[in-house]
Each structure stands twice: as structure tokens, then as C-alpha cells.
Sequence to fold (577 residues):
Amino acid sequence: MMGNTSGSGSLGELDDLYEAIILDHYRNPRNTDPVDSPDIDLEVNNPFCGDEFQIQMKVENDAVTAVGITGRGCAISQASASLLAELVEGKKSGEVRASVSSFRRLLQGEELSEEERDVLGDIEALGGVRKFPIRIKCALLSWVGLDDALKEHLAK
Amino acid sequence: MSITGPGTKLSGREFDVATVRADFPILSRKINDHPLVYLDNAATTQKPRQVIDAISNYYEQTNSNVHRGVHTLSIEATDAYEVARAKVAKFINAPRPETVIWTRNTSESLNLVAATWADKNVGEGDNIVITAMEHHSNIVPWQQLAARKHAELRYLAAGKDGLLDMANIESTIDSRTKIVSATHISNVLGTVNPVAELANRAHEVGAVILIDAAQSVPHMAVDVQAIDADFLCFSAHKMLGPTGIGVLYGKYDLLDEMPPFMFGGDMILEVTYEDAKWNELPYKFEAGTPNIADAIATGVAVDYLTDLEMDNVWEHEQQLTAYALDRLTALNGITIFGPEDPALRGGVISFVHDKIHPHDLGTALDQQGIAIRTGHHCAMPLIRSYDVVAAARASFYVYNTKTEIDALVSGINDTERYFVR
Fold:
């Protein structure tokens, strides 16, 4: 595990939640540029903590060709949104939806197949959220929103 | 005004915090290998051994239904239940015990007034006045009532200094105002509102005043007659008592004329197949078997606070608040909401860090055993008016110490080193 605790040894199991990759995406979120004439443009929010994100996607020939996610929230929700944006770019919609399903299962503590783990890659670091159940919804916020919007878009 | 507030003198018998702490079993718990530092008292307070014992003693020795049986246990349970009511009445200087109604909590008390007195007295074109710093439970019942009655819901604004804008009080509370409902101490800003002044203005225009005292009765001496409150409500669990029980105080004549809130056993005097007659106060508002054990335990919580003396409780929290404001203000990146002057506020401090989201801070502090509240504190419109989406909140009570505030400050520093490098 990549530790972050230099000088703050009393922070206990915090590294399990905030792995280096998460702190990196939190501090330097990817894919935050707005998308030109997006096919999907939605806002998701969690009124409980006030976190809110705008998700924009361009979907062409059943593939996500551009994605932009901006917003504000805690380190978990921001890093999760950034990792999501990085993951979906260039993916077929079916692959995106399968990844969201894998991610949900990861957070529920289920065993993932080798193939699923390969697809998620770095995102597996968010699995540490399992130990902090109250924060699972932070990790899921953008994923659930994006999945619902994609489902709706495909049904059109 | 005999409400204890800024400038109150100590009665000269300050309590010993170490002795107080020894009465609270949960304070010896470790959380994530650290001693518990409990700073979420505005949400609920911890319970002393005396209150916990009162609940088990009741079930072991006295358990029975009240106001029904002629047997010994029922008589004892009824006595204890009514003694607790009388203690609460004395605690807030209510003129008679039957003006104290047991409810489930402050929310239920507020809903009771909205559904009975206000439902009967607020009509089309009338208005209801609340403040911009209310808890959701003192907003939503009035939104619903206003919609139902085609009445107007008005807000007394609060300035960025965290104080109510009293300059507009006369135009806001006018001849069409039927009820003013205001929080005594804001659960977000800590502001102590001038409720006696609001009551005075309400009475000038023939309106009634309802005071949400959930954050004041636990922390300061509150005198319902000195404020001239028509209604006042609070919850036991925020004042060392159990969850599931709260209080509505009301002036006798108002309560007497109000229709019942719920219907059932105990609230009726006589029932025929066609109709029913309502019982006398306070039973008209206590349908069904009440929360006997927790009412009795609430009486014990009141005993505990009475023994500490409320002026001392207030003074203790004033000292903690002033110290915490000093230490938090000295930190970089922290913005504190509410009045700057500790004398204008109770022991509630909400703040944000410019680089750490409140929930990340809350999780990191929890790893060090420090419990604070994070989120919108059930006051979304107010939180949004400060252009933030969530805030962290530390709130104090009788067992808290300056050492615990030092732990909070050092925890914030550690968290900052962790997230902001």
C-alpha cells in the first residue's frame, strides 16, 4: 500500500480509505473540461453532504467519445468522479455499464473476477471505502448518476 | 429578562468537570484506540449513570401502565411519571405542571402546534413568521401549513454576522401575523436570539410565539414566563436524558382551547358509540400509553442539571466556546460561522476548512476518537446562504474540557498535513 501518513501517525486506518491514487485524483482531477454539445448532460447531488457534480458525455456509435465531470465534494466523491471519467472515455456503453456494475460489487465487498479487476485497474483503490460504510455513497455518487443517464440515453 | 445570558454571574459554586465526567460511562470508551472526545452535543448528549439507572430501575421495580390501574405498581408508576412532569415544569418555570405536555421530541412538539393551534387559527391571507436560521423541523411544518391554508410564510433574515436582522421586525411581524416560531439558539450558528423581544412584538400584533428551545433549555436557565412564551419545546436527549421523549410547554388557556393532536386512550374523558369528550390537560395531548420510563429518566436528567445549576452550565460552556473560538480562529484556512463575540452565542461552532471537505475532516477526526458533526445540520437553506454545501460542527456540554478542544485543534492540524501537502 502507498502510505500517506508521514507526520500524522495518529490518523489510524485513514490510509485504507485515502490511498495515494485517491489523493492524487482528488488534488488533480482528470477530465474536467466541459464537453461540446454533449449528448448526456446531467447534475447529480447528495443533499446529505451537499456534494454535486455535473456530468457531460458525448456518445457516438455506441461509444463514449468525450467525457467531462466537474463539481465539488469530499475527497472520495471527487477522486471517484475523476477515476470514473478516466475509465469511461473511449469505452463502449455496454462496457461502461458493466464497469459500473463491477464497481458496485467491489463496494459491496464481493469478489471480483480477474477480468473485472483488470478493467477497474487503479479504481480498485476505492475498495477501501468498504471499511467506512457511511462514505460508500460518496464513492458511488457520480457512478450511479452516469449509469442512469447512460441507460436512459440508450433507451431513446 | 431573567433568561441567563451574557453577563450572568456565577453562583459561586462552579462544578468540578472531572467529577461530572466520572458519571458518564461512555466517556471511558476508546474510539479507534483513542479516548473518546465527544463534541457532537448539539445532535445528542451523553447520559450520566443516574439517568441510565433510572431507566433500568423503572423496569426492574415499578413497570406498570399509568393512569389506569388501582394496584400498587400502577400508582407508583403514575406518581413517578407525574413527579417528572412537575420537575420539568419547575425547571423552565412553567406556572403549573399540566402546561407541560410529553411528546416524542422537539419535532413532534412543533408539529403538534402546527397541526392544532395553527391549523385552527391561521387562515387565508394570514402569515406565519419564522427565522432564516431554523432547523428543518421548524421550517417544513410551516411550509405545509402555509400551503394548506393559502397563508404566507415569512422569514426574519439573518446577517452574515450570524445575528437576526431585528430592524425589519415591525414590517415582518404585522397585523396579519398569527404565529411567530423562532429558535432560541441556532443549532448551526450558536446565535442566542432575542426571543423575549420577538415575543413582545408578536403579542403587540395579537400573534402567539412558539420557541424552539432544543439548543437552549439544555444549556442555560430558561424561564418561560420571563420570555412570555406562548409555546416552547425541547428534547430530553439533548439534555442528558433519553431519546424518544420531548416536551411541549404551552400557556394553559391556549392549550385548553386547542383541538387534540392524536386520538386514542388516555386522551378521552368519555366515549360513546357516537362521540367522545376530551380529557383535561395535559392528557388531552397524550394519546395512548406514554413513554413512562423515559419521562421518569428525564426527571432525573433535570435533577442532575439542577444540581449543577444552569448558570454554572452556561458559564462552563461560555468558557469552552471562547477558548475554542480563539484556537480555531488562529488556524489557517478555517472560516467560522456565527457571531464573533462568544457572549452572543452558545456552545456550538460550525466551520469550514478551505481545502478539506467537512466529511473528510469528520472521518479523519474520528480516526483520532474525536466525534464532530458534518453536513448540513438539518438547516440546508441557512448553510447554502453561506455559499457552502456542508460544514463541520463542534458543540460542547458539561463534561467537555479545554484539553478536548486542544485535541480537536491538533486533529485538524494533522488532517491538514494529511490532505494538503
Summary: Chain B has 14 helices and 17 strands. The first helix of chain B runs from residue 17 to 22. The first strand of chain B starts at residue 30 and ends at 31. Confidence is low (pLDDT under 50) at residues 1-11 of chain B.
